[in-house]
C-alpha cells in the first residue's frame, strides 16, 4: 500500500477547489465538476498547461449549486470548454440497467455498448484539443472513469495503474462526501471498512472491463481516424505503437 500511496500522491494535482483531480497520463487529466474550482484553481490549471476542458455531463447536470465558489468570466475565458455528454438519460436501457447514473465498473461494458458514438466524440475532442486536457464528469469517478480506462488501454498502462486510477477516483469522491452531502441517497459516505469491501468488488469488475476493451479498435470502428488516435496517443505520451 505504501507504493500505491506514493504513486497516488505523484499523480494527484492540487488546483484550488478541484475534487478528484488526477493525471491519467501525459497531459491528460480527469476530475469532478469544474464548478468546484475557485478562481485561483482555474489559474493553477492554466499554469499547469491546461487549455481544454471536456465536460462529459448532460445539459441538465450543468446547473450551478449554492456551494459553488464565485468565479469571474475572465477566469474561464482562456479555456476551450467542450461539451461531450457521454449518455442519453432518456435511453430506456440506460435507466433500467444503471438507475439514475453510472456508478459501477460492472456496467462499463454495457455503457460503452449503449453509447459508442458519444464516446467516440470525446476522443475526437481530446485529439483536437489545444494544450493539456481535463476530462470531467460530476463526481470524477465513473464516466470519467470509463474514459480514463480507455485512455490507459490506449497508452499501454498496466493493471496496477488502471486499478490505482479507479481507486483514486472512488476514494476522492468518498472523501468529498464525508463533509458534503452526496446528491443521491445511495451514494453516501462510506467508512473505511465498507469502502474497502466495495473497492474489492468493483476493482475486480474494473479489470474485467479493462481486459475486454481494445480502445484503438473501438475508436476505429466508430469513426475516429488513425490520425486522431495518434494525436490522442501523443497527448498520453503513449508506450503503445
* Fourth CATH level, the homologous superfamily: Protein tyrosine phosphatase superfamily
Q: How far apart are the first and last residues' alpha carbons, in Å?
A: 31 Å
Order of helices and strands: HEEHEHEHHHEHHHHH
Secondary structure class reads alpha/beta
| CATH fold title | Protein-Tyrosine Phosphatase, Chain A
Task: Note the beta-strand portion.
Answer: 5-15%
Helix proportion: 40-55%
The number of helical segments is 11
Runs in which pLDDT lies below 50 for 5 or more consecutive residues are: 1-10
Overall description:
Helix 8 runs antiparallel to helix 9 (192-212). 39% of the residues are buried. It is built from 11 helices and 5 strands; from the N terminus they run H-E-E-H-E-H-E-H-H-H-E-H-H-H-H-H. Strand 1 and strand 2 (28-31) form a beta hairpin. It is α/β, with parallel strands linked by helices and 241 residues long. It has a single domain, classed as Protein-Tyrosine Phosphatase, Chain A (Alpha-Beta Complex), CATH 3.90.190.10. The model is unreliable at 1-10 (pLDDT under 50). The protein is globular and about 40 Å long. It has helices at 2-11, 39-47, 73-77, 92-98, 108-114, 116-128, 143-155, 159-179, 192-212, 215-221, 226-236, and strands at 22-25, 28-31, 50-55, 80-83, 132-136. Strands 1-2-5-3-4 form a 5-stranded mixed sheet.
Summarize the structure.
The chain is α/β, with parallel strands linked by helices and 241 residues long. The chain contains eleven helices and five strands, in the order αββαβαβαααβααααα. It has a single domain, classed as Protein-Tyrosine Phosphatase, Chain A (Alpha-Beta Complex).
Amino acid at each position: 500500500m505504501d507504493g500505491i500511496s506514493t504513486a497516488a500522491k505523484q499523480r494527484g494535482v492540487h488546483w484550488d477547489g478541484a475534487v478528484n483531480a488526477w493525471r491519467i497520463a501525459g497531459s491528460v487529466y480527469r476530475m469532478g465538476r469544474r464548478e468546484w474550482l475557485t478562481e485561483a484553481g482555474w489559474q493553477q490549471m492554466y499554469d499547469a498547461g491546461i487549455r481544454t476542458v471536456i465536460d462529459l455531463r448532460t445539459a441538465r447536470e450543468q446547473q450551478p449549486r449554492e456551494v459553488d465558489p464565485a468565479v469571474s468570466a475572465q477566469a474561464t475565458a482562456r479555456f476551450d470548454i467542450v461539451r461531450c455528454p457521454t449518455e442519453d438519460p432518456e435511453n430506456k436501457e440506460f435507466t433500467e440497467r444503471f438507475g439514475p447514473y453510472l456508478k459501477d465498473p460492472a456496467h462499463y461494458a454495457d455503457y460503452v455498448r449503449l453509447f459508442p458514438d458519444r464516446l467516440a466524440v470525446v476522443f475526437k475532442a481530446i485529439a483536437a484539443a489545444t494544450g493539456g486536457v481535463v476530462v470531467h464528469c460530476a463526481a470524477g469517478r465513473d464516466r470519467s472513469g470509463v474514459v480514463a480506462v480507455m485512455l490507459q488501454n490506449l497508452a499501454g498502462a498496466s493493471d496496477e495503474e488502471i486499478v490505482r486510477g479507479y481507486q483514486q477516483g472512488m476514494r476522492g469522491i468518498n472523501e468529498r462526501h464525508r463533509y458534503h452531502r452526496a446528491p443521491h441517497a445511495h451514494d453516501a459516505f462510506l467508512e473505511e471498512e465498507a469502502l474497502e469491501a466495495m473497492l474489492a468488488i468493483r476493482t475486480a469488475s474494473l479489470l474485467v472491463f479493462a481486459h475486454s476493451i481494445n480502445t484503438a479498435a473501438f475508436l476505429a470502428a466508430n469513426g475516429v481516424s488513425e490520425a486522431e488516435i495518434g494525436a490522442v496517443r501523443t497527448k498520453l505520451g503513449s508506450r503503445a505503437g
